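CATEGORY: protein folding

GOAL: derive structure tokens
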Amino acid sequence: MRHHSAPRSAVRRRATIGLIAAAIVISGLALPSAADADTPSTVTVTTDCPDLTATVEISGVSSHPSSLRNGHAVGDGNPNNPKGSPASDTGSDGSYDYTVTDVPITAGQTTMTGYIQGPVVSDPHENVGDGSFTACQTTPPTGQATATISCTPNDDVVITVSGSGMTPGSTVGTAVIEAGNTAYRDNNDGTVDTNGDYTGNPITTPDSLGFATVQVNGPSPSYDVKATGSSNIPDCDDQPPGQPDDSTLFADGPDTAAYGTRTEVLGVLTDSRTGEKLSDDRINLYARAGHSAPFAKLVTLSTNSNGFAEYDPRMTRTTAYYWTYAGDSSHRSATSNTMTVTVAPVFTLAKANHNRIRAKHAVRFYGTLNPARKGQTVYLQRYSHGHWHRTTSHGVIKKQRLPNGTRTYGFIISRKLAKHGKYRFRLSVKATQTLTAAHSRTIRVTVRKRRHH
């Protein structure tokens, strides 16, 4: 068999087209040459945490070395708004290796675009790619603010707000004490030191502010919160001879707990005037399950050297707590705030009998719940379009044999899946008078196309 070659005229036409394509220029810049393809441009970004700046290295090979002048980087996508200090470095072979320093980065930024530019400022810029990075400080951390209290000879309250755990070297606009609808500021611009600490100027406030929020804020106009905390502002008034000081009692602990787990309920007793923690004083804990039952005394405990008393109940229902202090010859009685711990049931087992099925076959979802309440309804939810949606499938908790062979109080939910694809399901229960709503872990099911015979 003979092979026929293409006519010479066709070969000449192809060569001419290739030469024309090689000469195409867009916006004054040549398309990447073979050298560009062999040595693609790279943009490497390294960041400097304290200064929130970046060093951008831009390197590659250009088919037009005479058109190169410098490289720079921008973060806002506008090549005519360069950031950083440009540097020139053009090799005779068209290679370039620029290092652009002091490029600002912003909170949340993760890419930097590199550009190369022609011999004059008015020349267009060529986008040579993006360099990805993780900003070492995408958002300034929120530190911990504390208040140091002192009293003047005139019984004025003097408060100094300090902050820790903030971004070293960042600017502070003001330290603030907020009590109710009133704010007291030191209006002192300053700088966070290299350890992330800052101390504001003393602020004089009225007596008896009670519990107040203390903050270290950034400069105007945003006044972003750099550190926050709370403190009890005592009364500096001199007490008449023989009269006891006021006392403050505070209840604290987690807001939520899983059914059957232990949690901590704390009581903190302090002298309202001096802020001193009161030790070896007996305080009473009262509790109420649900929302309508009366409070009942649960336990009496003594405060430790830090003014704390701790009770660790096993949580079986949503419960509200508060502490009381009867007082003594040195301190008046006090009642704490009320805190509530909401309790959620726990899915101790949540599975599907098959994780891979054919279309139009059924999956049996099953499991157990703690606490297991006979007759309680368990619902099947499906994840779709970014949200969990309740399906029409549900089951009831009863004593039965589960698909894993165990006979116990549990639920079984059967659902036929008609379309092939990947699905995500979970089980859920509604809230009751004593327990909040809860859901299980995610169960993944893959549905394959039906087999045709």
About this structure: Helices lie at 8-22, 34-38. The chain has a mean pLDDT of 77.
